[in-house]
Design goal:
de novo design (two linked rop proteins), alpha+beta, five-stranded mixed β-barrel
Length: about 250
């Protein structure tokens, strides 16, 4: 069985025995992989601290048959984000990113764009220079969520009515959770699972979806709170349950 190499983000770990650990890793090359790291709990382990949560590491693994854990043979630290520990809001956001990658993706379904976006948000969350406020943290997180939704095939329709495909101009808007996008006033009565959307929040969502840097704009507190609630509700609907860390992110 040939060994395979990858770059991985540690998104979950669980003790498996007195000496070993099970880790969920999100890799650029293979997507999510679940591995058994034998001896990882020993004081002098070959893995050292490479399997700490939110650590980026270079790994070597042996692929097992379907239904079995892969075997992790090497893991060396590439990048850490120690600045996250200095900002509780940013740390919770980082844990939330890890939870989504762990719980909402399939094994061996690679998305290099999503991996790169995860790296970028963790760098931004850990940077005091580019992300110094709680408000910026929330909007940066929304940008990550929109990229993830697009990569997983759940990107919300924001430019036209998701139900009738009409243009959206100067009318009362809503977001259809089941429909997966913005609804015009005429189509809203047919959609029970919907949330009202203000025009400023709609415009901000479109900007965040299109631009990598729009999260840095000076959005109003009301817009930030409305977007966080809306995207949180949408992800909760799609997953069938609220992510555990969602409650710690605030509005």
């Amino acid at each position: 069985m040939p060994a395979e190499k990858a770059t991985a983000l540690v998104v979950r770990t669980t003790d498996w025995s007195e000496t070993s650990r099970i880790a969920t890793l999100w890799t650029r090359e293979f997507g999510k992989v679940r591995v058994l790291a034998k001896g990882a709990r020993r004081l002098k382990s070959n893995f050292d601290s490479a399997l700490d949560l939110l650590t980026v590491c270079s790994i070597v693994l042996l692929r097992k048959s379907s239904g079995n854990l892969d075997l992790l043979t090497e893991a060396q630290v590439v990048t850490r984000f120690p600045q996250l520990r200095a900002n509780l809001e940013a740390l919770y956001a980082g844990y939330y990113v890890a939870e989504l990658l762990s719980d909402w993706t399939e094994d061996y379904d690679p998305h290099p764009v999503l991996f790169d976006e995860a790296m970028n948000i963790l760098k931004d969350l850990g940077s005091a220079r580019t992300l110094s406020t709680e408000q910026a943290t929330k909007m940066r997180l929304t940008r990550f969520e929109l990229v993830m939704l697009r990569e997983l095939g759940y990107s919300p329709v924001l430019d036209r009515c998701v139900a009738c495909d009409r243009e959206l101009n100067g009318q009362r808007l809503a977001f259809g959770l089941a429909a997966g996008g913005i609804l015009c006033s005429s189509c809203q009565p047919a959609e029970r699972q919907r949330r009202p959307v203000s025009t400023p929040a709609w415009e901000a969502l479109r900007a965040l979806d299109r631009s990598e840097s729009a999260w840095q704009n000076a959005w109003s507190p009301n817009v930030r709170s409305e977007i966080r609630r809306l995207i949180g509700d949408y992800i909760t609907y799609l997953m069938g349950k609220p992510p555990r860390l969602l409650a710690y992110l605030g509005n």
